[in-house]
Amino acid sequence: METGMEITGQRPPTGVRDALPMLAALVPFGLTVGAAVAASDVGPFTGWSSSWLIVGGGAQLVAVQLLDGGAHAALIVAMTLVVNARHLLYSASIAPYAQPWPRRWRLLGAYVLADPVYALAIGRFERVGERPAARLRYYAGVAAVLWPGWLLITGAGVLLAGLLPDTLPLTFAVPLGFLLLLLPMLKDLPAIAAAAAGGAVALATAGLPLGLNVLLGGAAGALAGMSAGGGDA
C-alpha cells in the first residue's frame, strides 16, 4: 500500500480541467439558490452560510424555505437529512476507491462529497485504473474548483437577485442542474433510463413545495434504473 501520498503533481491537474465545465453548468442552479436566499426573510449571510454548512443545493433550498416559513428546527433538520440521504449512497459507492487514502483526506473528502464531485469522481474511478495517489489528486482537483465555486455562485445569486427578472423560471434550474450532474454517469441502459425517468418526473412536478419534486424524481429514476437492469439480465 502506498504511504506518504501527496496531492501535488508535475502535470496539469486533470481534476481541475474536468471540474471547470461542471462548474459552468452549475451556474443557473447556484443563482437559483442565491436568489431564493435573497427573497426569503432569512438573513443574507445566514442563508448563504448554508452553502458551506449543508454542501447540497437541493437541501439548502429546502432549509431556506422552511426557515422562511417559520418551521420548527427539528423539521428543518429532518427534511434536510432526507433530501441529502443520497449522499450515503455516494459515500458507499466511492469508499472502496478512497479506502487507501490517509484518514485526514478521507474526512475532508467526505465533507466535499456533493453531487458534482461524486459524479466526476466515480465516473473517472470506474473508467480509469489508477493508483490511490492519482485518484486522490483527481478528487482534490475537482473539489478545489467546485467547492469554492459553489460558494461564489450562490453568493452572486444573493447579490444579483434583484437584477433577475421575476418571470425567469428559476425553479426549473434545480431539476435541470441534477440532470447535468448525471451526464458523466450515463454509461449504460439502466443509467440512461434512470436519468430520463428521474428528470421527467422532477420537471413535471417542479411546482411542488419543499423540494419534493427532486425526491419524486429520484424515486422514479431508481425504479426505472432497476427495471432496465433487470430487463438486461
What would you note in describing this structure?
One of its GO terms (cellular component) is plasma membrane. This protein is mainly alpha-helical and 233 residues long. The protein has two domains: 151 residues, no CATH class; 48 residues. The chain is 73% helix and 0% strand. The chain has twelve helices and no strands. It is globular and about 50 Å long. The N terminus is likely disordered.
Question: Main β-sheet, in a few words?
Answer: none
Question: How many structural domains?
Answer: 2
- Strand residues, percent: under 5%
Give the radius of gyration.
Answer: 18 Å
Summed up, the helix count is 12
Which bin fits the share of residues in helices?
over 70%
Overall pLDDT: 78
The shape, in one word, is globular
Unreliably modeled segments: 1-9
N-C termini distance: 36 Å
Structural class: mainly alpha
| N-to-C SSE string, H for helix and E for strand | HHHHHHHHHHHH
Number of DSSP strands? 0
GO cellular component, one term: plasma membrane
Membrane topology: Multi-pass membrane protein
Subcellular location: Cell membrane
Transmembrane segments: 20-39, 138-161, 167-186, 193-216
SSE layout:
Elements: H1 14-25, H2 27-39, H3 44-53, H4 57-68, H5 73-83, H6 86-98, H7 103-111, H8 115-127, H9 132-160, H10 173-182, H11 189-204, H12 212-232
Which features does this protein show?
12 helices, disordered N terminus, 233 residues, single chain, mainly alpha
Concise description?
The protein has twelve helices and no strands. The protein has helices spanning 14-25, 27-39, 44-53, 57-68, 73-83, 86-98, 103-111, 115-127, 132-160, 173-182, 189-204, 212-232. Helix 1 runs parallel beside helix 9, helix 2 packs parallel to helix 4 and helix 2 (27-39) packs across helix 9.
